[in-house]
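Whiteboard transcription, Tuesday session. T.W. wrote the structure tokens on the left side:
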């Protein structure tokens, strides 16, 4: 009888216990004038988003070559990692956007993905969802070609991002290995169907490096790669680390994991990448505070000098 009562009590406790904090993922799209088509994106909203009167930090999470906005959810276990890190306090409750691109996040031969990302996606999302549209609340990360895009964005526009993470970045220098999909991706194929080496050099992170090193703004950066990466991403990530370490010695880190250029490595790396970003992102703020700051800023701009 005692055992039965204990079992019933345990089952009741489990039944009525509050559910673990869990975010939600939904899929959306909006009309892009730059791309001439709909711009798709997956959206992770942290637990409590619908019940609070707060504005949140935002993370842009980029997929790899020939990927889609569904990759990080279906293959990267993004929800599980984000839920856990938010629950543990390693990442502030954050809106995570996973956009879909048909390019390598550049203005390439097939579409102006860079211009659409900076000029349309970021403004649209930060007007549509309750996020703080300021640098200290904005981060970016990506894998492979998404890591390539991440490095390009943060080195070109460090004024936009508080932190970044590039997982197995396909930022090959001076050119990608012949086995890389870059050689057959429409972003880099000219009208004759040939790989445009000059375009690669103009769009790679090295084109932005000198200007970045001359600026005061620094973007804390997490790098990772597998030790058996067939594209030698570890070597190329180390080149990035070596270039940035003298400039920001405590604000660039690199992790080498066992494995190749695979989702197994990226899933293992994602929690550490999110935790790194969480060190630098500001947390949610009440909407009233955001409105008051905007009003003060508007008054200061209207008053002008003197």
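and on the right, the sequence the group agreed on:
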């Amino acid at each position: 009888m005692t055992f039965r009562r204990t079992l019933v009590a345990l089952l009741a406790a489990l039944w009525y216990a509050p559910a673990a904090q869990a975010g939600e993922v939904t899929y959306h799209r909006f009309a892009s004038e730059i791309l001439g088509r709909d711009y798709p994106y997956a959206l992770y909203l942290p637990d409590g988003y619908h019940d609070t009167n707060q504005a949140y930090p935002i993370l842009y999470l980029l997929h790899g070559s020939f990927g889609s906005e569904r990759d990080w959810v279906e293959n990267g276990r993004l929800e599980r990692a984000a839920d856990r890190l938010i629950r543990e306090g390693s990442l502030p409750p954050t809106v995570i956007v996973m956009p879909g691109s048909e390019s390598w996040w550049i203005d390439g031969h097939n579409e102006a993905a860079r211009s659409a990302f900076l000029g349309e996606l970021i403004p649209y999302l930060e007007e549509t969802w309750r996020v703080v549209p300021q640098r200290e609340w904005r981060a970016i990360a990506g894998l492979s070609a998404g890591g390539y895009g991440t490095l390009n964005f943060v080195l070109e526009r460090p004024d936009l991002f508080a932190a970044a993470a590039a997982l197995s970045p396909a930022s090959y220098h001076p050119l990608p290995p012949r086995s890389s999909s870059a050689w057959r991706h429409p972003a880099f194929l000219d009208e004759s169907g040939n790989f445009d080496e000059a375009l690669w050099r103009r769009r790679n992170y090295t084109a932005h490096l000198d200007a970045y090193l001359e600026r005061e703004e620094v973007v804390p950066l997490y790098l990772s790669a597998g030790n058996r990466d067939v594209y030698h991403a570890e070597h190329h990530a180390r080149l990035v680390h070596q270039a940035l370490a003298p400039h920001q010695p405590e604000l660039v880190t690199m992790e080498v994991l066992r494995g190749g250029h695979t989702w197994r490595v990226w899933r293992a790396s994602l929690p550490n990448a999110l935790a790194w970003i969480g060190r630098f992102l500001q947390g949610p703020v009440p909407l009233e505070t955001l409105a008051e700051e905007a009003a003060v800023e508007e008054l200061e701009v209207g008053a002008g000098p003197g």
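Someone added at the bottom: The first strand starts at residue 24 and ends at 32.
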